[in-house]
Amino acid sequence: MRDIEFSTVQKERMVSKVKAYFDSELQQDIGSFEAEFLIDFFVREIGPYCYNRGLFDAQQLFNERAEELGYLLQELEQPEE
């Protein structure tokens, strides 16, 4: 699997969210460097679990839709004489 990469804007938003979380939930002020370091850790260590779950969910949805499509195609069949 390739490394998960984010744009600069996405990274800035994530850093902002982590800093806000630490402030509101833990009453701790952390810097941008620390927040980015924490994000990198979670992406590297926890990211694969989230990614794999997303793939699993997508596969389930795909299978459900493919099954529905199969039924729709059967309904289009014409009687043969």
UniProtKB/TrEMBL annotation:
Top-rank taxon of the source lineage equals Bacteria
**Which InterPro entries did the record assign?**
DUF2164
Please state what the protein is called: DUF2164 domain-containing protein
Which organism is the protein's source? Parahaliea maris
